[in-house]
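thread: overnight batch results

M.L. [08:02]
morning all. the overnight job finished for the chain we discussed friday. pasting input first so we're all looking at the same thing
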Amino acid sequence: MAATRHELQANFELTGLTKQQVAADLKISLTKLDHLFALTQQSLNDPWILRNYLLDQVKTQGKTPVPFTALSGDWHRHWFLDANAIDQRRMSPGDN
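M.L. [08:03]
and the structure it wrote out:
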């Protein structure tokens, strides 16, 4: 989990965006975003949504993202994830 927290933070820093911009883009509160960065979010899908968003933002700027060790590969292959929700960037409701 420590590696994933570091990877999320490193990719966030590469985007050059503020937390307010990320939260607005993902239509979530800053509280929920903080839970995602700390990996204390209850939904297993939400960290993948944040991961994909950050990777897209880094690549859009022509930069090379920091690779993820645990959140790697194709989320469609994990039976316990809602791939459709992740594809649509549909975060779970609430701040937890």
